[in-house]
Each structure stands twice: as C-alpha cells, then as structure tokens.
Amino acid sequence: LMEGDKFFSTGQLQLKSIEMMVDEINSQRCGVVVDGKRYGIELTTYGDDSSKDKVGAIVENGMLPIRNSTSIDASFWLGPYSSGLTGKISPHANATNTILVAGGAASTPVFRDNPTIFGTFPPTSKYLAQAIK
Q1: Do residues 111 and 119 touch, judged by C-beta distance below 8 A?
Q2: How far apart are CA 97 and CA 76, in angstroms?
Q3: Given 36, 95, 108, 116, which is the most exposed site by the fewest CB atoms within 10 A?
Q4: Which pTM value belongs to this model?
C-alpha cells in the first residue's frame, strides 16, 4: 500500500497486529503444537496495491499456498483488508477447502455460500438488525 491509498491506515493496522500475533506465538509461546510437535508460524504477505486485478493475479498465478500441497501446507489464509479485495480470493479459498480469515471484509456476498470464510466484522446485512428489532 502507498500512503495515499484509501485503506492505507486500516491495512497498516491489520498488518501490524498480525505481525505482533506471529511474534507473540513464536517468541513467547515457542510456536504452536500440532500432534505433539512444535512449529513456528511464518507469515508471507503479498502486496495487492488495492487492486482486485492484482489479487486475482495472485490467486491465478498460484502464489497462494494450497492446503495439503507438497510444497507449503497452509492451514489458513489471512485475507485482504477490504470486502472488494477479499471477494476475489474467497471463492478460491472455499474451492480448496482452506479457511480464510477476512479481517477487513463485511460485504455479505463474501461470506454467502462460503463456509470456509470467516470475518471479524459483522456482515453488512446484519448492520441494522438490532435497530429493526
């Protein structure tokens, strides 16, 4: 992201919190335990330049690890910081049965019929649910 980008601040905050989480898990908790063995977490990021086309290219060119592949075993992905960008990756995550944590997405279509996609914001279809009740 460039400093002038619409979501620069949001993206930077999300990236920093993820980096802090990885550091905490690796340095303070000595990684994660899977089947009795400890593993460190490695964070790989890709710049999308706030472009749906670039997110699509990342997916189409196989830059994302596929769960249970022979080269990289990713248990989950952390999605881009907006609904529009996450919408480009969510069908691929769902098709490969990979969990995608969509930290910045809220658009209902990102999650509809995609059981492997999880958000940290309520979907937009629920924004006014309490007010209507």
Answers
A1: yes
A2: 9
A3: 36
A4: 0.69
